[in-house]
Amino acid sequence: MENIKFVIEKSARIDKLVNDLYEKMPEIESARGLLVTESYKATEALPIISRRRAAFAHILRNIPIVIRDNELIVGSATVAPRGCQVFPEYSYEWLEAEFDTVATRAADPFYISEKTKEQLRGAYPYWKGKTNSDLAKSLMAPEAYEAFVTHGMFTPGNYFYNGIGHVNVNYEKVLQKGYRGIMAEAQAALNKLDVADPEYAQRTNFLNAVIESCEAVVEYARRYAVLAREKAKKEKCPIRKAELEKIALNCMHVPEFPAADFHEACQSFWFVQLLLQIESSGHSISPGRFDQYMYPYYKKDIEAGKITQEQAQELIDCIWVKLNDINKVRDAGSADGFAGYGMFQNLIVGGQNIHGLDATNDLSYMCLEAAMHVPLPQPSISVRVWNGTPQDFMLKAAALTRLGTGLPAYYNDEVIIPSIMSRGLTLEDARDYCIIGCVEPQKGSKTDGWHDAAFFNMCRPLELVFSRGVDKGVQIGPDTGDVTQMKTFEEFFEAYKTQQRYFIKLLVNANNAIDVAHATRCPLPFQSCMVDDCIGRGKSLQEGGAIYNFTGPQGFGIANNTDGLLAIKKLVFEDKSVSMEEMRAALNANFGYGIKGAAAERITGEIAYQLAQQGIEIDENVVRTIHEEVTTAGGIESSKKARYQEIKRLIDETCPKYGNDIYEADMFAREVANSYTKEVEKYKNPRGGIFQAGLYPVSANVPLGAQTGATPDGRLAYTPVADGIGPASGRDVKGPTATANSVARLEQDVASNGTLLNQKFHPSALAGLSGLTKFVALIRSYFDQKGMHMQFNVVTRETLLDAQKNPEKYKTLVVRVAGYSALFTTLSRSLQDDIINRTQQGF
Amino acid sequence: MTHYGTKGRIFNIQRFSIHDGPGIRTIVFFKGCFMRCAWCCNPESQSYEIQTLVENGKEKIVGKDVTVEEILPEILADQTYYRRSGGGVTLSGGEILGQPEFARDLLRACKECGLHTAVESTANAPFEKIEMILPYLDLYLMDIKHMDSAKHKEFTGAGNERILANARGIAESGVQLIIRTPVVPGFNDTPEEIKAIAKFAATLPGVREHHLLPYHRLGQDKYAGLGRNYALKGVEPPEKERMEYLLSVAEESGLRCQIGG
Predict the structure, then answer these.
(1) Taking the domain B3-259, which CATH number applies?
(2) Residue to substitute from B13, B17, B18, B92, interface A, most A β-carbons within 10 A
(3) A119 in contact with B at a CB cutoff of 8 Å?
(4) Is residue A623 part of a domain?
(5) What is the domain partition of chain B in residue ranges?
(6) Which ipTM score applies to this complex?
(7) C-alpha–C-alpha distance, residues A643 and A586, integer Å
(8) If pLDDT is split at 50, 70 and 90, which confidence band does B261 have?
(9) Domain interval for residue A587
(10) Number of C-alpha atoms within 13 angstroms, CB side, residue A465?
(11) Per the domain annotation, does A294 fall within a domain?
(12) What is the value of pTM for the model shown?
């Protein structure tokens, strides 16, 4: 019945590689942390770019290397599988504080040995006051820092504590010219420099740093060649011996020189991918259009009969496994936000070429096949869709969706190309876009996109309208007046926009401070040599070396705000069935409902602390009483409680909700979304680029929701905020077409940093060719209406519940979280619950 | 009053339906049925009266009087999906022939908007009523549940003579006709019974497809919600292997057969 193209048998090697990779909890290793410290101590007199180059080279010459059993593509950042290195130059205090809890925490635990702790404790004092985040903090306006750290109005924490990442470099150039070629290019630029050039000194330093970084990379590859040869000598099995000999040859030749065959191209690709993640801790290092730049090598080998399709598939599968060998430890808070050991290495297939013609090729299909062979979270595989996308390619992608790993994500060329052109890209560059990290489009190898610049929780400014800009007893936002005195809904909505405008300004300040810090303390010569036009301009990516520069902070909470504002409009201003005073009181009282879970513990602690401040003695009994009142809303008198619950019922049952194909509600959601996106785009960054908004939360809607009180859409306090641009959880009752129609009414092309729509399906909806065909039609119909992105969780509720109960049975169960896929069992309980509760589209 | 003002009684409009005709479809469920099939998964569809159903402890009113004009926007809301998938609108029930004027006028309005139209019906009504809708219909999805009239009557409350005669009438009219059979254990799940239906279907001019729909229990709770007994309590849905065997039997008729709609 179904005739899915490119079904290729999986080699037995792949399962062995996967099993070995997942045998143990990932481990934190100290080598990089110690080496970077050593190097920094020895280079204090040098300019920063030279220190960065020296540290990179020192690391590559000394970091332990390993070739794992059965590997055909080699190169690992850590000796332990899926281990991670540390990057103290960005920040370190959080890790030191979590040394004893990181192995047992709920989200993304890491093993760390006592020896590693001791070694890192020895290195850390050197970094006091010297890290990137120390500098960023000192550069921020105090009110911006407070709004971020103390009040959680937005969180630029990702780049505050870590490297930027979020880049697609010019893999093609490395494959075609090798680092020898790039060194020659840098040398040529050096030779051309005029000694009287006012930037002679900086440019010279940068170009020399490029050359020496590339030299270190070549040496690093040779270390692998030597190791492979040694292993080959000792190897008894003749087949493995030959494999190791080929690995040794590959590593002698690439990435120094142009790749001679497909296997070398794969190895060269992998060194680039790996080393970018040793130079810096930035995640979302995205391979981009792998099917395009790898294709010439595949085609040549296939045509010459040098390789079979099965062999090529095995090599691609090996890369898939390797992409899961890279890992990163984050602080506990961020681990919740990026749950599932997310590395967000986004690899995209299909779509148009620079001429506007369809570029789907054999490798596009084989990458989807690899994602079926290796059902792990990495890479985040994406599919570009346009009107000319072959139907059998869409069916192949749908067959992958049906497996339930949440992959691939689908992107609409017809929206993204004009959207990024409106930000200044040329038509050819726009057609050649790839996706970075979760959902962020960029023209690879020419862009420093700063795509994940911050999360902005749009529910918080709405809270501050009710409190007149006061949070935790402090006036942090503008006083927008007493809500009970507001005469019209327009006045209320304007107050919301005023609060939001103010905090967007602070967000911009925080982002720009961090931006300057990266340029000052962590410029990256190796990464920069593969993005245009850093070599030409003689400066790093972090200093504005890229052709296209953006900063992309993402907002979320559109659905909650839309539903909430509509409820206020209807109940308070139109029907006058609820007074503003009652609404405010109901929100403060969580609609008369108790607070559940971890939030209850936190609130209890906060109340106890406040009472203690007032001189009241706190003992176990007092705490128990407070806790009971918090969880049962016991402190509220029963008549008020009943009224508050009635208000929630009125909101739930009588007010229009976004996501049900109600034109007026959807158009209002558009206004709410634009109040964020069109404000953000007014600002500029220090690299000479502009801000552009995204609308997606990664998985921050859960932890940031846990900091947000009850909202007027009937959402209870501290529960998750709506994810992406989709409807609030459980509010969409008309099925996937109605939801998609609603979401398509947003002006998505203005959110040029990406949008995200999650849909959940039962596998039976994709049964047979007919199911797949209808599923494809659903995607295409959403895209016909200018939807930008769509992704799917196809797994039964029962499976997820069982996985919660028996995590050991589901070690490799992958689900789509938000813009990426993660191992379900490694997610925190609350995020697991959120995924289970997300409306299952029924039919 | 034009056909847009015609009134009818429905109990649900379901969008993104993918098992009731080609492509992605919207189904309009008519209230009221002539038959009382023991396995019916929509027992709330059977009575023409507006009823109260208890669902998850909450009372829900089942049944609503609407005009063609009132419900057309919701049907048209998914036009993009119909176009991409070759879908359209399906009228189902209940039995749509219980409200032939409304069925005709709703189908006519849908055709005027360029939609593909289908009905799910047992055709157990005077042929004049069927003739009313045929000009506006692209596809007739017709149930034939059993070839033995006595057994048919025992399980559905009605004999099958008129149904079989009407099947021929519809086939001869030239409207695309697909025969569907709910496969219910203990009623019609033997190879002989399925074979007889398929054989009959193959004699109908122009009929090329026969669909076997495995019995399911998803409507069971609704019986309790209506204060009724579920007659097939304890009956298990047919196993996959059984369905595949019956499929192979049906295929002997030379028709294109499939499991599921």
Answers:
(1) 3.20.20.70
(2) B18
(3) no
(4) yes
(5) 3-259
(6) 0.92
(7) 8
(8) confident
(9) 561-654
(10) 32
(11) no
(12) 0.93
